[in-house]
Amino acid sequence: MKILNLGFLCSHGGSNMQAIINSVHDGRLQANLCAVISNNSQSGALQRAQKHAIPNYHISEKTHPSHVDDKITELFKYHKVNTVILAGYMKPVSHCLIEAFSGCVLNIHPALLPKFGGRGMYGMNVHRAVLQAGEQVSGATVHLVNSEYDSGKILGQMQVMVQPDDTPETLAARVLEIEHALYTDVLIKISQGESIVGNDVV
Ligand code: GRF
């Protein structure tokens, strides 16, 4: 069993991060909450981090022009992060950052990849596309991050039924609920050695 040292990248509310924090606090997940970084100084994620006394930083193109990911990597290394959790992070991550935490950068996507992934597939766009395609089932996917959008190894998925009267907003709300359960479950499995990440069992 490996203790996960988690570093979070978030842009908005941070509800997925909060679900993971809760699972650490109630003992379901053995992990250290090392640092939270957001490109959005007003994000709920930074407020949540402050509330839980987790080191937190606002790092963006404004604060660190042309070297955002270098700074993120430096801070995560300083805080001994070994697993990077993208949770609603709206910026692409660079090859350098992915290499620095090779095989240990995870993302959650609000659909059943490989469907409804790729450039432009974020937020409500995803749920709109699912409904337009007439899908009966949607869900969430946790996957490893590589240099192409939403195409890394899938680590876990959970499904929800699409309801006939769903709007993108109602579907998004139900998917977000299962995201919280899924991200935590995947991390628990990784910490218990059930998943193979990169070349290591972590
Ligand atoms: C989630 O739907 C996630 O899948 C997507 O952005 C949303 C983030 O929500 N990438 P939160 O910030 O965790 O509340």
Account of the 3D structure:
It is a single chain. The chain is an alpha/beta fold and 202 residues long. The protein has six helices and nine strands, in the order E-H-E-H-E-H-E-H-E-H-E-E-H-E-E. The strands form two sheets. It has a seven-stranded mixed sheet with strand order 3-2-1-4-5-6-7, sandwiched between helices. Strands 8-9 form a two-stranded antiparallel sheet. The longest helix has 24 residues. The radius of gyration is 16 Å and the shape is globular. 5-O-phosphono-beta-D-ribofuranosylamine binds next to helix 1, strand 5 and helix 6.
Structure at a glance:
With 202 residues, the protein is an alpha/beta fold.
Topology:
Layout: E1 4-10, H1 15-25, E2 31-38, H2 44-51, E3 56-58, H3 68-78, E4 83-86, H4 95-100, E5 105-109, H5 124-132, E6 137-144, E7 154-161, H6 168-191, E8 196-197, E9 200-201
Parallel strand pairs: 1-2, 1-4, 2-3, 4-5
Antiparallel strand pairs: 5-6, 6-7, 8-9
Helix pairs in contact: 1-6, 5-6
